[in-house]
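Notes to self after the Tuesday call (sharing in case useful).
The group wants a holo model before anyone commits to mutagenesis around the pocket. I volunteered. Ligand is glycinamide ribonucleotide. Logging inputs and output together so the record is complete.
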Amino acid sequence: MARAIERVAGMTARLVVLISGSGSNLQALIDACADPAYGAEVVAVGADRDGIEGLNRAERAGIPTFVHKVRDFAARSDWDSAMTETVAGYEPDLVVSAGFLKLLGDGFLERFDGRYINTHNSLLPSFPGMRGPAAALEYGVKVTGATLFLCDAGVDTGQIIAQVAVPVLDDDSLETLTERIKVAERQQLVDTVGAMVRGGWRVEGRRVVVG
Ligand SMILES: Nc1nc2c(c(=O)[nH]1)N[C@@H](CN(C=O)c1ccc(C(=O)N[C@@H](CCC(=O)O)C(=O)O)cc1)CN2
Ligand SMILES: NCC(=O)N[C@@H]1O[C@H](COP(=O)([O-])[O-])[C@@H](O)[C@H]1O
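Result:
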């Protein structure tokens, strides 16, 4: 049983958020952090590409940003090392991947062991990867949702921290379903990260207990 973060009363947890797109989950965290009682601050936002709205959101909020593109490095492992060192430089208590479309390697996972989480738009283990809502529609499920989990070396295979169910409607399009999931996903992310930073969490095998 490992306690991933030692809570110090009144401590403001340091969050680094990783993105690749619009950053609405990032914005939800930024907005939540505006309340000192939430117990966290977004100290940096990182991306694998530039020209995305999520970086604009961070800049509007006065949050430092960085971009590391895989193609700018000689090897994927060099990119992974750069991600690891840049993120470590911000001394995060928790690294939150929210629409970050790159798998991070062993070096990153070891450095932030038990403190790297990801929000995904399906009810894992169903529909991992980058097409969660589309795969749910194609399969014909009646319920899907969002999952917050601890990242491991697999693709969306880490221990589940929280899940929220979202109905699939008969007339759903990919767009309507994706947005309905996002509404629930953002609330889950804010509520669960807040509970984690204020009350800590522990991992017992495949189970994660918050608070
Ligand atoms: N070590 C891990 N890193 C990440 C995980 C994880 O579970 N373990 N989750 C992802 C987020 N994610 C789904 O939630 C996800 C993101 C990206 C991919 C993927 O196949 N990426 C490809 C490139 C895709 C592209 O650039 O278009 C890749 O990394 O080569 C799968 C799942 C965050 N990181
Ligand atoms: N598996 C990776 C993946 O597809 N992640 C998904 O990208 C979206 C980002 O939205 P946002 O940029 O508006 O926060 C989120 O819905 C997240 O689940």
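Two things stood out.
The chain has two domains: 11-112, 118-210.
The CA atoms of residues 60 and 103 lie 27 Å apart.
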